């Protein structure tokens, strides 16, 4: 009797890789190699660089996040190369390279791109020596791939793909942590975080954005070293936080930041939302902290591609409530949108955001309450409100805010319909029938009165009560010219 054949296994991150060796030691030849069962897609410029290094007799592997993402069936745009070639040899092979990081064995190779200058990174296998600024080693030794792996941050990022043999070198059991969905620091986690304190935030980002869990000893080390995050540049902190709040699990990221005692150092204004109670009628979800987390989750689900300004404005839209509650002794949140605008300015400046980004975030925060007035607005005021630049961002913020509280979408639906109507009528921009020059021609003296007159004419035009320059001039003569 024939044995019943087993159905083939579905290819997943757990079984699409197959170990050809299981022993991990300090030499590459005896380390764990993994055979892969599907093509590893690489862009032409990376293939060319690998080929050039191989032809020069050098070892060259794809390393880091793109290998991790490949095993997770995730698309990856960036492909870094680690190689046995020293810095001088790299400069010879890639004469156009940017050599700012040459002393650390790191070169940036330019890519021809119609959208502007792009680069990918090639780095010599190295071992980092003592760190003094919580980011850069004082000195490096150019060594082999095993030592190179041991200096990296997390096991899932220390995988090396060899295009020549279609195998992955796994010196620190990163493939096992990928299978088990765990973020684990390499070696002593406390030492890894002391070397580069930004890893404190990167651990949270990888855990939440990949849907993994954080290994216990790694989490304990983050708590113990949390204060080191204050030694990291504002720009690096900002970029990590942005990737979290724009990611698939912003609420989980914020909870982790708080639990690991990082939030109090990077965004104390958000930590201050905890325990600030709200009306159960309008906010059955809980205090300002819980509402903000729920709103961030709603925003993530509703929008596939969230802009930086929308993500930050959503996080900060109620950041002024603790201030307003303190001012009113907990009676109300009157003026919290203005308080939020001021705090957004402070936070944006502290995190070295651009002036245009800060201004846009402030505008979103300060205007997020205006939807409650749309049913009673004068027609011209409503059109001007809906016609403001990037109104879709404000509308998306309001929708997430509503869904995360009492669920009332009446204002959202009304504005969405009016916006569609305005687009059909090509009336997004207010009509400009006359100018200040026209008022001078009528004998009026330039001054503050001009602003009032032009604004009134614009309102009447928006409401289609004035439809031509002649009608506008006649109105001015009748009401303003003596």
Can you give a write-up of this model?
The protein is of the alpha+beta class. The chain folds into 3 domains: 17-180, Beta Polymerase, domain 2 (2-Layer Sandwich), CATH 3.30.460.10; 267-424, Hypothetical protein af1432 (Orthogonal Bundle); 436-479, no CATH class. It has helices at residues 44-55, 65-71, 87-93, 145-150, 174-180, 189-195, 199-210, 216-225, 234-245, 250-259, 263-266, 268-271, 288-302, 308-316, 321-327, 336-350, 355-367, 379-386, 391-403, 410-424, 436-441, 448-462, 469-479, and strands spanning 17-19, 33-36, 60-63, 80-83, 106-111, 118-124, 126-128, 140-142, 160-162, 167-169, 182-183, 213-214. The strands form 3 sheets. Strands 1-2-10-9-3-4-6-5 form an 8-stranded mixed beta sheet. The longest helix has 15 residues, at 288-302. The termini are far apart.
- How much strand content do the residues show? 5-15%
Overall average residue pLDDT? 87
Taking the sheet with the most strands, its summary is: 8 strands, mixed
Q: Number of helical runs?
A: 23
State the name of the first-level CATH class of the largest domain. Alpha Beta
Secondary structural class? alpha+beta
CATH architecture of the largest domain: 2-Layer Sandwich
The best one-word shape is elongated
What is the count of β-strands?
12
Spans where pLDDT lies below 50 across 5 or more residues: 1-26
Portion of residues in helices?
Answer: 40-55%
């Amino acid at each position: 009797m024939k044995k019943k054949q087993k159905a083939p296994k579905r290819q997943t991150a757990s079984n699409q890789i197959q170990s050809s060796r299981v022993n991990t030691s300090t030499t590459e030849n005896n380390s764990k190699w993994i055979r892969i069962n599907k093509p590893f897609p690489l862009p032409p410029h990376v293939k060319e660089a690998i080929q050039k290094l191989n032809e020069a007799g050098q070892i060259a592997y794809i390393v880091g996040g793109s290998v991790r993402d490949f095993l997770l069936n995730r698309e990856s745009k960036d492909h870094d190369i680690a190689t046995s070639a020293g810095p001088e040899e790299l400069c010879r092979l890639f004469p156009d390279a940017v050599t700012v990081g040459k002393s650390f064995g790191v070169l940036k190779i330019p890519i021809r791109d119609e959208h502007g200058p792009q680069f990918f990174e090639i780095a010599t296998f190295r071992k980092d020596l003592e760190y003094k600024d919580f980011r850069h080693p004082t000195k490096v030794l150019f060594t082999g791939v095993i030592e190179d792996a041991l200096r990296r941050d997390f096991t899932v990022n220390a995988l090396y793909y060899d295009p020549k043999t279609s195998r992955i070198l796994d010196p620190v059991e990163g493939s096992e942590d990928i299978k088990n969905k765990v973020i684990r620091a390499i070696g002593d986690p406390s030492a890894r975080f002391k070397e580069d304190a930004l890893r404190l935030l990167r651990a949270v980002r990888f855990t939440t954005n990949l849907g993994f869990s954080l290994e216990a000893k790694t989490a304990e080390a983050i708590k113990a070293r949390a204060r080191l995050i204050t030694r990291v540049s504002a720009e690096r902190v900002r970029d990590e936080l942005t990737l979290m709040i724009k990611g698939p699990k912003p609420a989980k990221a914020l909870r982790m930041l708080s639990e690991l005692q990082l939030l109090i150092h990077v965004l104390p204004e958000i930590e201050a939302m905890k325990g600030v109670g709200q009306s159960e009628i309008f906010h059955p979800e809980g205090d300002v902290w819980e509402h903000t987390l729920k709103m961030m989750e709603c925003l993530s689900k509703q929008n596939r591609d969230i802009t930086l300004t929308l993500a930050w404005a959503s996080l900060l839209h109620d950041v002024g409530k603790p201030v307003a509650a303190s001012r009113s002794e907990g009676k109300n949140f009157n003026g919290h949108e203005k308080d939020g605008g001021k705090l957004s300015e402070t936070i944006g400046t502290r995190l070295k955001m651009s002036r245009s980004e800060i201004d846009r975030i402030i505008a979103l925060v300060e205007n997020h309450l205006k939807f409650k007035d749309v049913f009673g607005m004068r027609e011209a005021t409503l059109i001007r409100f809906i016609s403001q630049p990037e109104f879709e961002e404000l509308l998306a913020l309001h929708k997430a805010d509503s869904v995360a509280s009492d669920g009332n979408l009446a204002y959202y639906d009304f504005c969405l319909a009016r916006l569609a109507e305005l687009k059909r009528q090509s009336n997004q921009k207010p009509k400009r029938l006359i100018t200040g020059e026209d008022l001078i021609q009528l004998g009026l003296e330039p001054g503050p009165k001009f602003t009032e007159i032009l604004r009134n004419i614009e309102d009447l035009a928006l409401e289609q009560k004035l439809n031509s320059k002649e009608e506008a001039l006649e109105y001015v003569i009748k009401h303003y010219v003596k």
